Amino acid sequence: MQRFFCVLLLLAGLVAAVAGLCAGSIWLYGKATTSDFFATRHIDVAGNVRLSREMVLQYGGLKEGENSLAVSIAEVERKLRATPWVEEVSVKRLLPDRFVIKIKERMPTFWVHKDGVLYYANESGEAIAPVESRNFLSLPTLTVETGAEDDVAYLPRFMKDLHAGSLPVEAGAIASITVSPARGIEIYLEDREMRLSIATDDWAGNLARIGLTLGDLARRHELKNVREVRSVNGSVWVTLSQPMRG
C-alpha cells in the first residue's frame, strides 16, 4: 500500500510539473508575441519584376511593426500564391525582426482578349491578369483562330527562336501575333505594315528559309516594298506592295 501511494504521489508530481511547464510556455509565448523586441523592422523582397514591394506586402498581408512570431509563414505564402502574378514563393523568418520573401513571377509575353477584357498572357497564351494602368506594359496582341489550338504549342518555341535571333525581327516591333490553321504563326509588323507567317509543319526549315529571305531582301534594300512573306511547304512566298525596280 505504501508503495502504491509513493507511485501515486510521483505521478501527481509529474502531472503538476508538466502542467506548470505548459503554463510557463504559454506565458512565455504570450509575452514573446507581444514584445517589441520581436517587432518586424525589415522585410526584404527579391525576384519581383511586375509587382512592387508594396504590392507584394499587401498581397501577402505582411507589414512592418507586426510581431514576427505572430506571423504565419504558411499563410503569407498561401496568399501570395493565390495572386495571379506569383508562380513560386518562399518566405523566411530571421529572428528577431526580419523576413525575406523570394518570388518568381509569371512573365507576360502577350495581350489576349478574354470575355471582353484585355489580359496579360504568358508565352503559351494563358491569361495571367487584366491589363491595368499601374503595371502597364505594351505587348503584342495574340489571337488564336478556331482550328489552330494545337499550334499554340509552337508559341514558346517561336519566342525562344525570336530572342535567339533566328528571325531578323525585333520583338518590340511586333504589333500582333495570330495562330492560324492556314498560315501557322503569323506576325504583323506595324511600322513596316508587313506580315510574316511560318507554317508549323516543318518549323525549323520554314523558320530558316524565311530568315534567309528577309536577310536577302534587307541587303538589297527591298524590304520597304514587301507586304507579306510566307514560309510554307519548303518554299517562301513574297507579296509586294508595289513592283520592285531592277
What's the count of strands? 12
Helix content: 25-40%
Strand order within the widest beta sheet: 7-8-9-10-11-12
Which structural class best describes the helix and strand composition?
alpha/beta
Q: Which blocks of ≥5 consecutive residues have pLDDT under 50?
A: 21-25
CATH superfamily of the domain at 140-240: Cell division protein FtsQ/DivIB
Characterize the largest beta sheet: strand count, sense, and whether it forms a barrel. Answer: 6 strands, mixed
Number of helices: 5
Measure the end-to-end span. 122 Å
- What's the overall geometry? elongated
Mean pLDDT: 88
CATH top level of the domain at 140-240? Alpha Beta
Pfam families: POTRA_1
Main location: membrane
GO cellular component, one term: membrane
InterPro entries: FtsQ, POTRA, POTRA_FtsQ_type
Key features of this structure:
FtsQ, cell division, POTRA domain protein, FtsQ-type, Ubiquitin-like (UB roll), cell membrane, alpha/beta, POTRA_FtsQ_type, Rossmann fold, 6-stranded mixed sheet, 246 residues
Structural commentary:
This protein is α/β, with parallel strands linked by helices. Among the domains are: about 35-105, Roll (Ubiquitin-like (UB roll)), CATH 3.10.20; about 140-240, Rossmann fold, CATH 3.40.50. Helix content is about 30%, strand content about 30%. Strands 7-8-9-10-11-12 form a six-stranded mixed sheet, covered by helices on one side. It has a three-stranded mixed sheet with strand order 1-3-2. A three-stranded antiparallel sheet has the order 4-5-6, with no helix packed on it. The radius of gyration is 31 Å and the shape is elongated. Residues about 20-25 have low confidence and may be disordered.
